[in-house]
Amino acid sequence: MRGWRTGAGRSAVPGGGRAARGRRTRIAVRRPRPAALRLHTDGRSCALRRLLYSEINHFPDILGIVKEHGPDRLNQALADRLARLALAGRLRTTDPDLAAEQFLALLLGPLEARSRMGTRQIEDAELRVMAHTAVDTFVRAWVTS
């Protein structure tokens, strides 16, 4: 996944338990880079979403075509990584696709709202805070105890 940092969580975290697993899982589900998040709010991306919203009733098949080449591919790649964490016993999920969908919603929902559907530029510092908050919320909800 271009623009996303993922890793195997190799750094040593002293101790065990939920807190340590949470820190290790945060390492494995690293924050998306601001550049990757910025792609969602650039002019072309926002124009495409606005066009889809306005024309979906006239061309219902177009949404499937667009999703196939963008959001679905990202969701599948993320779900694959989350499935590996689940198999390793680090995430509580039997449905990595759902977990990936929820993680992306934690990232993209606030991004869409704060950028006012792409009409407001968001600074990198704010993007980093949004990404950190999304990862933290996801880890708290899904990390094994």
Description:
With 145 residues, this protein is mainly alpha-helical. It is 67% helix and 0% strand. Helix 2 crosses helix 7, helix 5 crosses helix 6 and helix 6 packs antiparallel against helix 7. The relative contact order is 0.17.
Structural class: mainly alpha
Tally the helices: 7
What's the overall geometry?
A: flat
How helix-rich are the residues, as a percent range?
55-70%
Mean pLDDT: 78
The number of E-state strands comes to 0
Radius of gyration: 16 Å
Main sheet properties: none
Uncertain residue ranges: 1-16
Q: What is the helix/strand order?
A: HHHHHHH
The proportion of residues in beta strands is: under 5%
Distance between the termini: 28 Å
Please specify the SSE layout and strand pairing.
Layout: H1 17-28, H2 34-41, H3 43-55, H4 61-69, H5 71-87, H6 96-114, H7 124-142
Helix pairs in contact: 2-7, 5-6, 6-7
Task: Please provide a brief summary of the model.
The chain is an all-alpha fold and 145 residues long. The protein is built from seven helices and no strands. Mean pLDDT is 78; it is low at 1-16.
